[in-house]
Amino acid sequence: MVALYITSMEGAGKTALCAGIGKKMLDRGVKVGFVIPVQLFETGITDGNEDIAFIKEIFDLPESGEQLSPVRLSPSELWQSLTDEVTDFTDNVRQVYREISRNRDVVIMEGLGNLGMDKVSTLACYTIAEAVEATVIIALRYSSTLDVSKVVHIGEKLGQPLGVVVNFVPDSKIDEVRLDLTTLFNEAGIKVFGVFPEIGSLLGVTVKELSEILGGEILTSQESADEIAENVMLGAMTIDSGTSYFNRKENKAVVLRGDRADMQLAALETSTKCLILTNNLKPLPVVISRAQDKHVPIIMAKQDDSTAIAGIEEALTKASFRNPRKLETFSNVLDCYFDFKALYSELGLKA
Question: What is the pLDDT of residues 285-303, one digit of tens each?
Answer without folding.
Answer: 999 999 999 999 999 999 9
